Amino acid sequence: MSKQFQFKLVLLGESAVGKSSLVLRFVKDQFDDYRESTIGAAFLTQTVTLEDQTTVKFEIWDTAGQERYKSLAPMYYRNANCAVVVYDITQSASLEKARNWIRELQRQADPSIVIALCGNKSDLSARRQVSEEEAKKYAEEEGLMWAETSAKTGEGVSEIFTAIAKKLPLTAPPSARTGAGRAPTGPKSVDLNKQPAGQNSNEPCNC
User: Fold this and answer.
1) Helix (H) or strand (E) holding 6
2) Where in the cell is it found (predicted)?
3) DSSP-derived 3-state class of residue 197
4) Second label for 12, Cα 20 to 30 Å away, from 5, 19, 41, 119?
5) What is the CATH number of the domain that holds 26?
6) Full residue range of the structural domain in which residue 127 is found
7) How far, in Å, CA of 10 to CA of 72, rounded?
């Protein structure tokens, strides 16, 4: 019998790094060149089926990146099982913001949270300001997953969410997790780039 698990996932990052576009690509396989800024947070769901037919349902909170909404963020990452912290590879300042979010998660989120650092807009590699080496080194130091994605082309998007699903603790009895929306315990962080978490590519992504 296939097992089903449910986990709360939050997206964090500066405004305009492409968080909403990333989620739209993952959930609906769509991309919109002109997306209005998220107000507060948006809620979506999507499931991932792993090789062993285990089904992982993500309850996704896509938070607003604008500074005026920052105080609301703890409401969304509280009890989150996993977080995707997004930066824009063409904006070095967005990686600094991502570092701030990761520090905040490490201080205040559940100690078992799985964190993925995601460099979006890999299709704009000609305008790159954040090197793969810099981001990967930081991720390794902090024990994070890391990948580059393109919400515009879809490059690496499903891979990063699938990699997160594989890193979540699925060993407890299904009753302990199914429909729970949160996982009690599990590994503090993930194993990094040792899996195809989105081929660290230089391929297309806009937002």
Assistant:
1) strand 4-13
2) Cell membrane
3) coil
4) 5
5) 3.40.50.300
6) 4-177
7) 12
Name the pLDDT band for 55 (thresholds 50, 70, 90): very high
- Tally of domains within the chain: 1
SS3 content of the chain, % helix, strand, coil (to 5): 35, 20, 45
> The whole model's pTM is what?
0.81
| Cβ–Cβ under 8 Å, residues 10 and 76 | yes
DSSP 97-153: HHHHHHHHHHHHS-TT-EEEEEEE-GGGGGG--S-HHHHHHHHHHHT-EEEE--TTT
Angle of helix 132-142 relative to helix 92-108, nearest 10 degrees? 10
The SS3 of residue 57 is strand
Radius of gyration of the chain (CA): 16
Residue 203 placed within a domain: no
| DSSP assignment letter at 29 | S
* Distance of alpha carbon 12 from alpha carbon 77, whole angstroms: 9
In a domain, 189, yes or no: no
Name the residue among 47, 43, 107 with its Cα closest to residue 74. 107
Is 100 among the domain residues? yes
pLDDT in tens, 129-167: 999 999 999 999 999 999 999 999 999 999 999 999 999
How far, in Å, CA of 197 to CA of 33, rounded?
25
